[in-house]
Task: inverse folding
């Protein structure tokens, strides 16, 4: 006979011990590392800190880039040939050279 105990799955928690159930996800369904706010990441950085975006350039997470249409942004996630970039107007998915 079963007892009245529930077999709920334990919530996964991050390093702080808090649940990451409501953590922001990438379009790939993975939990984002603490995503920087655009102003903190890009803010008043000198123009020389930004790499010009092109499909043939390679980008890494947290790298600053400048896009001809979307402006300045920071790479928040990289997976193969796709990068997720946080621009002032929001996140965009772009391609790059993996």
Result:
């Amino acid at each position: 006979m079963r007892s009245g105990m529930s077999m709920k799955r334990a919530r996964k928690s991050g390093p702080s011990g808090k649940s990451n159930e409501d953590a922001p996800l990438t379009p790939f369904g993975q939990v984002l590392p603490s995503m920087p706010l655009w102003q903190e990441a890009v803010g008043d950085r000198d123009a020389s800190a930004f790499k010009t975006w092109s499909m043939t350039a390679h980008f890494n997470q947290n790298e600053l880039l400048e896009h001809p249409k979307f402006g300045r942004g920071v790479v928040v996630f990289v997976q193969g040939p796709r990068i997720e970039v946080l621009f002032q107007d929001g996140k965009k998915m772009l391609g790059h050279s993996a």
